[in-house]
Design goal:
This protein is an alpha/beta fold. The chain has 3 domains: about 210 residues, Rossmann fold (3-Layer(aba) Sandwich); about 60 residues, no CATH class; about 35 residues. The chain is about 35% helix and about 20% strand. The chain contains 11 helices and 10 strands. The strands form 2 sheets. Strands 6-7-8-3-9-10 form a 6-stranded mixed beta sheet, with helices on both faces. Strand 4 and strand 5 form a beta hairpin. Helix 3 packs parallel to helix 5. It is elongated. About 30% of the residues are buried.
Length: about 325
């Protein structure tokens, strides 16, 4: 049979409409911004707007974001090198930490300074890089904890089962449906402590959906996950967008970011240095500098004279920076004398 007769194509070929990992390719959302892809660009329909937010720890400024908008019904990736301030920004937006200055709004409501539990009730939930499953509760019990406004949580109501039994049954049915969707239904009676790292990530994502959120924030969902479960997690994140949920996630896996993100925001040293569609951002000079350094293509042996070679423009810039820094250091030392 010729390759044009074989719907699978030649051996090793990628099937039409699928990714290299075998999942169905889904269209990216476009038209998210009202102007050029630059830091702080306005979005056509933002679900979250952040203005002048800063967080300092002593003399260290961990977050210093002038303006940032998160597009609604899209998957936005927040990337940057370690120490860029990504998780700190997450903690601020979710109410786990308080800023030194700034405001932000969610779905048109100002939520700066609102505690985490109230933010969650408003429809904005998060998961953690280190999962927060309660190990000595079963998987199903962990799921039921995510259901909001449970009548049985009130002291006096807890003694009258007729008040909360109907809601409890509905919550169990909803939890079992989500466990089945995330392929954890066979584990519902197992203790959460028995789950693998990837299964705990799935459990935390499923539990987040118990509250029917509009915005889900995922902190490094792929960290510590067995490669066998990676594609399952990717598909579930894409499913969230199909359900009308907005996703904002922190991730270091650039393949994953390119594969599922509609929009990418890049942080470095607490600031937003770039944002835009994945393919555009990956080639942005500011992004390359943030990850690899502004002179990653320079041979330091040539700059220092230990290795023969010709100085290019980038090498000359670096040499000039070194000379300026050295002169400033000498001048500062002389002043101290």
């Amino acid at each position: 049979m010729s390759s044009d007769q074989n719907p699978q194509g030649p051996p090793g070929a990628q099937a039409p409409g699928t990714t290299a990992t075998g999942s169905i390719r889904r269209p990216k959302k476009t038209g998210l911004a009202t102007g050029p892809a630059v830091p702080g660009v306005a979005k056509t329909d933002p679900i979250m707007v952040i203005d002048s937010v800063s967080r300092r720890f002593g003399g260290l400024t961990a977050v210093d974001v002038d303006h940032l908008e998160i597009p609604r019904h899209a998957i936005t990736a927040l990337i940057g090198p370690n120490g860029a301030g990504k998780t700190t920004l997450f903690n601020l937006l979710c109410g786990f930490d308080k800023p030194n200055s700034g405001t932000w709004s969610y779905d048109g409501k100002d939520i700066a300074g609102i505690p985490a539990f109230k933010v969650a009730r408003m429809g904005q939930v998060r998961t953690f890089q280190l999962t927060k499953a309660l190990s000595l509760l079963t998987v199903l019990e962990n799921m039921k904890l995510g259901a909001p406004r449970q009548k049985g949580e009130r002291f006096w109501s807890a003694f009258i089962p007729s008040i909360w039994r109907g809601q409890e049954t509905a919550n169990e049915e909803k939890a079992r449906g989500l466990l089945q969707r995330f392929r954890l239904d066979a584990k519902e009676k197992d203790f959460a402590a028995s789950l693998s790292g990837g299964q705990r990530k799935l459990l935390e994502m499923a539990r987040a959906l118990m509250s029917d959120p509009q915005l889900v924030l995922l902190d490094e969902p792929m960290a510590g996950v067995n490669p066998a479960l990676t594609q399952s997690l990717l598909d579930h994140i894409l499913d969230l967008k199909d359900l009308g949920v907005t996703v904002l996630f922190v991730e270091h896996d650039m393949h994953m970011v390119r594969h599922i993100a509609d929009w990418v925001v890049v942080m470095a040293e607490g600031r937003v240095v770039a944002e835009g569609p994945p393919d555009t951002v990956m080639q942005d000079r500011a992004v390359i500098d943030a990850y690899l350094g502004s002179h990653q293509d320079v041979d330091l042996g040539v700059v220092t004279g230990r290795v023969p070679g010709e100085l290019g423009e980038s090498a000359k810039e670096l040499l000039q920076e070194i000379e300026v820094a050295e002169a400033a250091s000498i001048a500062e030392a002389e002043e101290e004398k």
